[in-house]
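Sample intake sheet
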Amino acid sequence: FLLDGFPRTVAQADELEKMAKELNKPIDVVINLVIDQKELIDRVIGRRTCKVCGASYHLKNNPPKKQGVCDLCGSELYQRADDNEQSIKVRLDTYDKQTSPLVHYYAEKGLVKDVNAMNDIDEIIDKVNNSLLNKIYIVSQTTFNSDKFDELISIIKNKTAKEVIVDKTICDAT
């Protein structure tokens, strides 16, 4: 299984662990994508999505050929209302208070694999992919635009996992 955006609290992690044991599918690895907060904010602020086809862009890292226009269907690109610095700082504060303790929680169990998310996306995907062989996964989409995250999920499905469940909600918490 691949879980993204869950658990978000230690209490949820405790419940997940109970369920995993009941299913005889213990959690094998927790991927911790490590990134500088300023870089994370820049990545989120720069995200753009096509209103029609959902294609993802980034103003700096993956810009469309024509500003504000989708390369695939020619429709308008938009920025999510909560993809602004103030909203992101609120989400990061919530993360620091509620979710970051999970890194310690899983590290104590020897399950955390840190991946430097400051690297090139292909390098990040390779490092995550190398950590995931027939395991139950918890991965955060925070550092990926959705097409690259979908690419990572596709790689995992095709090369390493028997089952993958994806919940792309970690960036949606406010």
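Comment: The CA atoms of residues 29 and 111 lie 5 Å apart. DSSP finds six helices and seven strands in the chain.
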